[in-house]
Amino acid sequence: MFKKLPSCLNLVGLLTLGFCVIAWNAPACAATPTSISGCETVSTPGNFALTQNLTATGDCLTITASNVNIDLMGHTITGNGTGSGITGNNVQNVVINDGSISHFATGVNLTLSTCCVADDTIQNLTVSNNTDGGIRIEGCCNTFANVTTNSNGGIGLKNDDCCSTVTNVVANNNGSDGMDLFGCCYVVEKSTANGNGAVGVFATDCCTAVDDSMANNNQLNGLDLEGCCSVTANDTTNGNHHDGVFFDGCCSDERGNNIAVDSTASNNGANGFEFAQLRNSAANISATKNANHGVLMTCPATESGIAASGNGSSNLFEDTSNGVCTDLNNKAS
Fold first, then answer.
1. Domain 177-333: which topology?
2. 187: Cβ–Cβ under 8 A, 6 or more apart, which residues?
3. Helix, strand or coil for residue 261?
4. What sign has the CA pseudo-torsion 126, 212, 139, 49?
């Protein structure tokens, strides 16, 4: 019995050494969040967590430091129609998560007076019923995920610079646009912009991709994609008062280079799909019962697998003043 003791001791020693190695290589535990129990100024970097619902007259939380993570912990921040629920100027890498903000002038308002990168994250947040806008972020390279911004007096979601991602965002019944995306290079996926007072999703520059999203029953266009080289894929744009999808172009040669694929536009007040400039591509899109054209294409362009019927003026209208379009397997008589 005693002869086995050294083996046991060796085993204990090896386990102890292993735990020491694991402990040595393990990252430090995140610091306990600083509690927020009332409206205040957040002036240091770090993690912060609400401990209760907050009510404000004017601004509630003012951020003056970068690298701040505010977790609402499921709580609400409610205003009196003025100020912002969460506001900050010239701060970067701000994360706002998990709660609701309502009844301010602007729900979330993060601005930059100097250029250009914000790198903010807004996620798991409801920002609704604010008298002006829901969410306004200046600067590029932000992430919006699992956000609802409905019934605000102005724009639901506004990003004033390029290169952000918008995933699972709902922007419905706002007084102006559902989403305003300034600059180029956005990715919008699995999102909804319905019933807004102007455009559903308005992208001001080139190279935006909208995928698996809906923009229905808006007062102007469902999707308004300015600039060249944008894509709509697997999208639904029905019942808008103007176009379902509007593509513009750029540059002195009026090129569009936009793509519409596997998308539907029906019962819109003007065109289902409008390609205002040259060299675009449409594939496997459906356009039915639109008041003007099902598809308005400026040639030269490529069209394949278009299904268009029951539109007011024509099912497929081709402007051939600059060239001819290539048609393949279309059903748009």
1. Pectate Lyase C-like (2.160.20)
2. 164, 165, 166, 167, 208, 209, 211
3. strand
4. positive
